[in-house]
Amino acid sequence: MSAVLFLLVFLLVCCVGATAIGLPGNYGMMLLILLFGFATDFAILSPLHIGVLLMLLVLGEVIEFVASFIGLRKEKLGLGTQLLVVGGGIVGGIIGSGVLPLAGSLAGVVLGVFVTAYILVYRRLRDGGEAQRIALRAALAQMIGTGTKVVIGLLVVTYVIYSVVRKISWEVPPTGIGF
User: Fold this and answer.
1) Rounded CA gap, 169 and 179, in Å?
2) 160 and 9 in contact (C-beta within 8 Å)?
3) Which of 22, 179, 176, 42 is nearest to 96 (CA)?
4) What's the distance, CA 78 to chain centroid?
5) Are 64 and 96 in contact (CB under 8 A)?
6) What is the CA radius of gyration of the chain?
7) What is this structure's pTM?
8) Rounded to 5 degrees, what angle do the CA atoms 24, 56, 103 make?
9) Of 58, 127, 129, 139, which sits with the fewest C-beta atoms within 10 Å of its C-beta?
10) In sequence order, what DSSP letters do the residues of 143-164 get, joined into one string?
11) Is the pLDDT higher at 6 or at 55?
């Protein structure tokens, strides 16, 4: 059982790393946490704990998704523009993954948000300085959203590790001379 726990915790940590570079690590974490519960017969994490952890991971995804919306909200741009900027981030992430397989995904998302916001705002206002300011704001909001998602993922993994260590520490047999 210890080997399975170690493997699941190791994979959870890998998923946080994947999330940090812009890959879909939170979805892997969701699956692993469910597997974790079933593999341990919910002895370490109860269904309630698993549900809360899954909700936190979903919250991280939502925060990342709406981050550029929040960055553009103050600029009074239409919903269509905001959706196109999010779409630009998704396309940028896909292209970035193809160009630079690991770190390119996160860079692609941020660059995709920036370029899409710049083009759309420039077409509307015909002011390069203003378009750059708004695009930087959207890209920064996207980075903050992704960072928040990574922090949530780290908190989830930390809680799982804490739960495993706490459970294992109660199960370790005492050592001694012939006892």
Assistant:
1) 19
2) yes
3) 22
4) 26
5) no
6) 21
7) 0.80
8) 25
9) 129
10) HHHHHHHHHHHHHHHHHHHHHH
11) 55
Written as one string, the DSSP assignment of the chain is: -HHHHHHHHHHHHHHHHHHHTTS-HHHHHHHHHHHHHHHTTTSSS-HHHHHHHHHHHHHHHHHHHHHHHHHHHTTT--HHHHHHHHHHHHHHHHHHHHHSTTTHHHHHHHHHHHHHHHHHHHHHH--HHHHHHHHHHHHHHHHHHHHHHHHHHHHHHHHHHHHHHHHHHHHSPPP-S--
Q: In this predicted model, what pLDDT tens digit does every residue of 122-175 receive, in sequence order?
A: 999 999 999 999 999 999 999 999 889 989 999 999 999 999 888 876 665 656
Sign of CA dihedral 108, 94, 56, 36: negative
Q: Which of 145, 167, 153, 170 is nearest to 32 (CA)?
A: 153
Q: Which amino acid is at 32?
A: L
Token pair, residue 99, equals: 């160009």
Q: What is the total residue count of the chain?
A: 179
Taking the alpha carbons at both ends of the chain, their separation in whole angstroms is: 24
